[in-house]
């Protein structure tokens, strides 16, 4: 088989993965997540546990150590047998707190402490770098198995190509957006497909070996018996050592929970904990299927292949030696899948940890000032930090692979990584089960474990220092595992028992151990609209404008308010913090909200209140709570309606007054100047000047009367719409032309998204144009920035409505005035500059209502911002139009 | 014996709790069955006999877990149905205890 063919197949496979990931992301974007969320996809994605180390290495491991290879799969099997009460609880608690990684889980439990998360991240990175190097090595080794003459110069190239491709894939599909719940449908679906390829390849090879090369299972058993009887070295290697057996089962069972990539697919990407009902037996079944043929392949490979061939490559060299090129290609793709899925998932998980616990806190620390108002896009920063971290993780693996020369030393790295991440487990389990576990204890446990693991296991494995000496009869790996884990647990227990937790920690402990959602009390928000607006600005910088607005609007609706700014109740703040934690980690979210929302001190009495409530009376309290929330919502709606009514009545009164006033002013000057015109000896120049003043005043009067008439027609719902189709781009262009020809000639920058504007709209174009012109000329009049700029963005939403946003960079509108700007005669700033009667926005609102759409003010966008929403098609004319207009109010 | 509705509900929830207990015991049992033979008679379970023992045990564990999870799922659905139908005696958080 030629290398070209191999590279071609490989590239084709990679392209397929890109297409699958892309299609799944698209489907998820359109809300079609049903099959993406199925337990089968979930179970298959869990098989990212089987990396290239197990795909290739299991046979090598079995050749050297016999049944011991199975420990790596037995540990997870035991853990998943207990999935119903163990893992389910973990997933539920983690999802409740929107945990983004294993480091985030530990940090959130122990009082949202970022240094602790940074420490856990360090372990993750140390353990994963050689492990990723191992995956790259396995791919380049399997390439080499196909080439006739080993060309060592090209091998580094293979690893580099693979690493770059994987980094690209991960960046493309792993950092698309900063979703609040951190799920990557595209990546997970691609990995599920790769899991299928892995399984099919390995099973095909196993069936070929057992029934093709040997004479069925009985023959295999006989061959094993024969080989171990005739070769004493083999029999000695296969002898199971109880301490090693136990230590490896325990460590691999722990690692399946704490490995960053496993935590990512098992907890973070899970839709809910119910998936584990199927995965609880299906994942062990997957592992069983992957292990069933390991011994047969090992024993047949040992018999058929020349002595001295690398047992780690038996899975490839066996079919190749038998001339089964197609099978070998399938196995190659299986191994390739195993390596790539591990690298992609590890890179995503580690990048999340690195950016959330290293880079973002560092960045926040470097810019200490409260920077709410600046327009900097924090979400973009986090995404870039993540992309950088992905490059660093994959690049680090490649550099390690090059530096270690791709030697056999890498083969042990799987176990080294397992024992490393296992050091997090005592703190994690203790935190979930024991309310007495404290942050100090966690520091001590994880720290002790990290140091001992580094000295006893990690450094010797990379060739620094020597393996520790244990008494005869004690296996060195088992001894080191027992020593590091033992010291870890002991330090964790002792310091937890002797230290005292702070209130936040106790609250989090309560929430984690009893799996209840706490409402952080005592955080007095002040309840000002300005506070809510700065929080909205903060969320916008992380999630982007639309998701932030949607979340705030939903929260406001839940409180019974209209608009975008909810009251700063403790419940709202807690929910917001947890949603933010889903993007940047618990510790950072806590710090950010604390900074923006003011002090976040929790007093002990607040804590006692919560702790007392969370007991038996939970159910009762919840029921009362629902009733009270309903009442509060109704009361809030009533209050709002009442306020509005009072305001309206005042407005009606002042409306009449204002109309008379607005009419009288031109009238007065008309009368005065016409009196003047009557004077006989008026110079001609004055006469024509007065005449033109009279003309201007009548024009103003006419305009005002036109506006009033327009408004009354619109309000009565008797407007006739002339529906036609138009291109939004043309409409905006026309509106800009019209607005710039009429207004004062200020230098004004327009920022348009030309390609995005080409949207066909079906509406009354003249009326829409009137609205657009009004908004644009308002921006020209009122934008007070030294270099005024107007950003226009149009887009079509999934429900086929069209949104047009107009955002300028001025100082915007005060929160307490935002509710009034759409009312009649409401000129906000000084009336002299306005030059209109203050009816423009009121007319705009009526027009948009008549068109079946809306116009709203968007708070927290860094300036005055208006959103015009158009429905897919206008309401039918006549009575229906009226009904729609009535419903829109 | 006549079965009244509350008695039946009581019984169902009792059964569900015991199924939960079984799901808790299963991993412990599995771990013991995996570890003890190797500590007691490593020579006997290292070679072909060991392989047969291990894979049979493994398959058994998977089968038992599947059975237990199916039963638990079914009784959960039944409990939810009963709770929706008006039975208020169910305590949803009991798997934490």
Short précis:
Chain A is mostly helical and 889 residues long. In chain A, strand 4 and strand 5 form a beta hairpin. Helix content of chain B is 79%, strand content 0%.
Quaternary form: heterodimer
**Largest sheet report of chain B:** none
- Rg of chain A (C-alpha, Å): 35 Å
- Computed structural class of chain B: mainly alpha
Transmembrane segments (chain B): 21-40, 52-72
Keywords (chain B): Membrane, Transmembrane, Transmembrane helix
Describe this protein with a few key phrases.
heterodimer; A: 889 residues; mainly alpha; Sodium/glucose cotransporter; Helix Hairpins; 4 domains; 5-stranded mixed beta sheet; two-stranded antiparallel ribbon; B: 97 residues; 79% helix; elongated; disordered C terminus
Question: How would you describe the overall organization of this protein?
Answer:
The complex is a heterodimer of chains A (889) and B (97). In chain A, strands 2-4-5-7-6 form a five-stranded mixed beta sheet. A two-stranded antiparallel ribbon of chain A has the order 1-3. Chain A is mainly α and 889 residues long. Chain A folds into four domains: 9-367 and 380-407, Sodium/glucose cotransporter (Up-down Bundle), CATH 1.20.1730; 530-601, no CATH class; 638-716, Signal transduction histidine kinase, dimerisation/phosphotransfer (DHp) domain (Helix Hairpins); 721-889, Heat Shock Protein 90, CATH 3.30.565.10. In chain A, helix 6 (102-109) runs antiparallel to helix 7, helix 7 (114-146) packs across helix 18 and helix 16 runs antiparallel to helix 17 (325-366). Chain A has 36 helices and seven strands. Chain A starts with a helix and ends with a helix. Chain B is mostly helical and 97 residues long. Chain B has one domain. Chain B is built from three helices and no strands. In chain B, helix 1 runs antiparallel to helix 3 (48-84). The longest helix of chain B is centred in the C-terminal third of the chain and has 37 residues, at 48-84. The radius of gyration of chain B is 19 Å and the shape is elongated.
């Amino acid at each position: 088989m030629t290398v070209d063919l191999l590279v071609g197949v490989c590239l084709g496979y990679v392209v397929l993965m890109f297409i699958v990931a892309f299609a799944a992301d698209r489907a998820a974007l359109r809300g079609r997540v049903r099959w993406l969320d199925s337990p089968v996809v979930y179970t298959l994605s869990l098989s990212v546990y089987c990396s290239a180390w197990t795909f290739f290495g299991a046979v090598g491991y079995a050749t050297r150590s016999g049944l011991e290879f199975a420990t790596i799969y037995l540990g997870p099997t035991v853990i998943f047998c207990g999935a119903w009460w163990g893992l389910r609880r973990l997933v539920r608690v983690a999802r409740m707190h929107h945990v983004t990684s294993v480091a985030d889980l530990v940090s959130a439990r122990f009082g949202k402490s970022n240094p602790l998360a940074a420490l856990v991240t360090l372990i993750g990175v140390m353990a994963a770098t050689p492990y990723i190097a191992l995956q790259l090595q396995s791919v380049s080794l399997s390439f080499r198995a196909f080439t006739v003459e080993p060309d060592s110069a090209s091998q580094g190239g293979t690893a580099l190509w693979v690493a770059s491709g994987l980094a690209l894939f991960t960046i493309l599909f792993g950092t698309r957006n900063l979703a609040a719940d951190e799920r990557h449908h595209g990546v997970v679906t691609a990995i599920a497909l790769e899991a299928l390829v892995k399984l099919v390849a390995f099973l095909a090879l196993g069936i070929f070996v057992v029934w093709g090369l040997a004479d069925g299972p009985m023959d295999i058993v006989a061959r094993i018996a024969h080989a171990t009887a005739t070769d004493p070295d083999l029999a000695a290697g296969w002898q199971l050592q109880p301490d090693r057996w136990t230590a490896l089962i325990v460590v691999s069972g722990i690692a399946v929970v704490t490995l960053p990539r496993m935590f990512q697919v098992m907890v973070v990407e899970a839709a809910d904990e119910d998936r584990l009902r199927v995965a609880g037996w299906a994942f062990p079944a997957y592992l069983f299927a992957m292990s069933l043929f390991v011994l047969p392949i090992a024993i047949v490979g040992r018999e058929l292949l020349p002595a001295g061939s690398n047992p780690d490559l038996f899975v490839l060299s066996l079919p190749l030696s038998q001339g089964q090129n197609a099978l070998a290609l399938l196995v190659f793709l299986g191994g390739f899948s195993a390596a790539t899925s591990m690298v992609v998932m590890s890179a995503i998980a580690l990048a999340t940890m690195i950016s959330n616990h290293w880079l973002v806190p560092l960045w926040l620390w470097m810019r200490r000032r409260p920077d709410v108002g600046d327009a900097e896009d924090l979400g973009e920063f986090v995404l870039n930090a993540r992309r950088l971290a992905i490059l660093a993780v994959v690049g680090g693996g490649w550099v390690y692979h090059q530096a270690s020369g791709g030697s056999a030393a890498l083969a042990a790295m799987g176990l080294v990584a397992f024992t490393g991440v296992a050091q997090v487990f005592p703190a994690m389990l203790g935190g979930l089960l024991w309310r007495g576990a404290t942050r100090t204890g966690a520091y001590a446990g994880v720290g002790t474990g990290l140091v001992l693991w580094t000295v006893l296991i990690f450094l010797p494995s990379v060739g620094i220092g020597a393996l520790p000496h244990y008494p005869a009869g004690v296996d060195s790996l088992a001894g080191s595992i027992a020593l590091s884990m033992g010291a870890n647990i002991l330090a964790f227990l002792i310091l937890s028992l002797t230290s005292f937790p702070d209130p936040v920690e106790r609250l989090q402990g309560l929430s984690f151990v009893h799996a209840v959602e706490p409402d952080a009390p005592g955080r007095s928000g002040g309840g000002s609209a300005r506070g809510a607006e700065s929080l909205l600005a903060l969320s916008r910088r992380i999630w982007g404008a639309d998701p932030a607005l949607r979340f705030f609007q939903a929260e406001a609706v839940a409180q019974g308010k209209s608009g975008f700014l909810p009251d700063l109740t403790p419940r709202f703040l807690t929910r917001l913090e947890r949603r933010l934690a889903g993007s940047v980690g618990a510790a950072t979210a806590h710090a950010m909200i604390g900074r923006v929302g003011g002090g976040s001190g929790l007093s002990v009495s607040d804590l006692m209140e919560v702790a007392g409530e969370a007991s038996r009376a939970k159910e009762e309290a919840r029921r009362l709570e629902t009733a009270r929330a309903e009442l509060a919502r109704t009361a809030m709606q009533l209050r709002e309606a009442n306020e509005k009514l009072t305001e309206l009545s005042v407005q009606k009164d002042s409306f009449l007054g204002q109309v008379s006033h607005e009419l009288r002013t031109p009238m007065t000057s008309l009368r005065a100047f016409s009196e003047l015109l009557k004077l006989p000896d008026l110079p001609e120049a004055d006469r024509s000047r007065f005449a033109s003043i009279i003309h201007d005043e009548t024009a103003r009067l006419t305009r005002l009367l036109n506006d009033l008439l327009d408004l009354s027609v619109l309000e009565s719902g008797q407007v006739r719409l002339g529906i036609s189709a138009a291109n939004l781009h043309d409409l905006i262009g026309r509106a800009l032309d019209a607005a710039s020809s009429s207004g004062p000639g200020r230098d004004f920058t327009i920022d348009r998204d030309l390609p995005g504007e080409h949207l066909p709209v079906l509406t009354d174009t003249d009326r829409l144009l009137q609205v657009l012109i009004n908004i644009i000329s308002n921006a020209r009049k009122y934008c007070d920035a030294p270099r005024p700029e107007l950003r226009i963005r149009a887009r079509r939403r999934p429900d086929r409505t069209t949104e047009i946003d107009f955002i300028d960079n001025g100082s915007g509108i005060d929160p307490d005035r935002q509710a009034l700007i759409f009312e009649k005669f409401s000129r906000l700033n000084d009336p002299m500059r306005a030059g209109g009667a203050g009816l423009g926005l009121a007319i705009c609102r009526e027009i948009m209502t008549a068109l079946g759409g809306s116009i709203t003010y968007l708070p927290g966008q860094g300036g005055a911002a208006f959103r015009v929403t158009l429905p897919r098609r206008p309401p039918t004319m006549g009575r229906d139009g009226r009904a729609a207009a009535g419903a829109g109010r | 014996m006549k079965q009244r509705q509350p008695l039946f509900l009581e019984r169902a929830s009792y059964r569900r709790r015991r199924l939960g207990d079984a799901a808790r015991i299963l991993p412990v049992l599995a771990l013991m069955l995996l570890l003890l033979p190797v500590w007691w008679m490593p020579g006997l379970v290292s070679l072909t006999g060991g392989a047969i023992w291990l894979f049979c045990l493994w398959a058994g564990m998977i089968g038992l877990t599947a059975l237990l999870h199916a039963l638990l799922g079914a009784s959960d659905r039944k409990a939810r149905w009963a709770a929706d139908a008006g039975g208020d005696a169910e305590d949803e958080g009991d798997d934490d205890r």
